[in-house]
Amino acid sequence: MNWDDTRIFLAVARHGQLLAAARALGVNHATVARRLSALEADLKVKLVDRRTTGSALTEAGERFLATAERVEAEMLGARTEIGGADVAVSGTVRIGAPDGFGVAFLAPRLGELADRHPELTLQLVPVPRAVSLSRREADIAITVERPDHGRLVAKKLVDYTLGLYASKAYLEREGHPETPQDLKHHALVGYVEDLVYSAALAYADEIDRSFQPRFEIASALGQTEAVRSGAGIGILHAFIARNHEELVPVLVGQVIDRSYWLVLHESSRDLRRVRVVADFIAEQVARDRATFT
Questions:
Q1: Partners of 161 in beta bridges
Q2: Residue 75, SS3 per DSSP
Q3: C-beta separation of 237 from 122 below 8 A
């Protein structure tokens, strides 16, 4: 079995399209199709259903994916151990994170890590959706729920809270709500419901089932800026809101508890560059844990 053919298969499995896999690998579409066919002929089994809308793994393909990823992990590990790769902590590590944690907390701290390891390239991707580690969209993911499937390794980073906030100017103009039911008489800022990618991020009902924002923003930082401007009352991350003196807590007893998790793919957790970045994130959160409470 040719490893290059297996590498092609992994790219197709992760990107869901032969064309997308070809682009990621820097080869043409015909090469991907030919090498994939060669692998299927070698194994004497169909691995991928090729469709006009993309591609899907067959049952045999799903089984082979697990094997191929184990082989990939072994080869990466051998490269590190025998070839000396990553000794100087070099290469690229991509971190996918919700924009609240990624931009407000992590971005100001990553410069310290870059200074420690000049040959390391850090990519921070604050995304309003879940990233796929199995498809290699990122090397490290920060999530708001512990993953319950896939070959992933998760570690709880920290608990955090969200609560209702408004600007001083808004409250002077519109008054303070006394109960959650009073919120229906106020302008509310919230998330775009059909773009919420995790049940843990659909938290408005925990404040009040009638919470109906008229200004919806698919970004935690965008919601914060809207509330700061006086657009209305919003459910904000406390560790972000408390950095802005113009923001005032509203209905202080209404608190929402959530957690951040650090997630790695099993095949890359032993790569030194990935481990160094993951350890740095965990250390920064532990050092500044009081920020989140």
A1: 257
A2: helix
A3: no
pTM: 0.71
Cβ-based neighbours of 156, under 8 Å, separated by 6 or more: 146, 259, 260, 261, 262
Q: Three-state DSSP class for 111? A: helix
Q: Tell whether 172 and 243 lie within a shared domain.
A: yes
Closest CA to 254 of 144, 161, 160: 161
Residue 70, amino acid: R
- Distance from C-alpha of 221 to C-alpha of 52, rounded to nearest angstrom: 39
Encode pLDDT of 186-213 as tens digits. 999 988 877 666 666 677 777 777 788 8
Q: Tell me the C-alpha distance between 86 and 70, whole Å.
A: 20
Q: Phi and psi for 143 in degrees, rounded to 5?
A: -125, 165
Domain contains 185: yes
Q: Amino acid identity, residue 96?
A: G
Residue 270 structure tokens: 């032993």
Domain count within the chain: 3
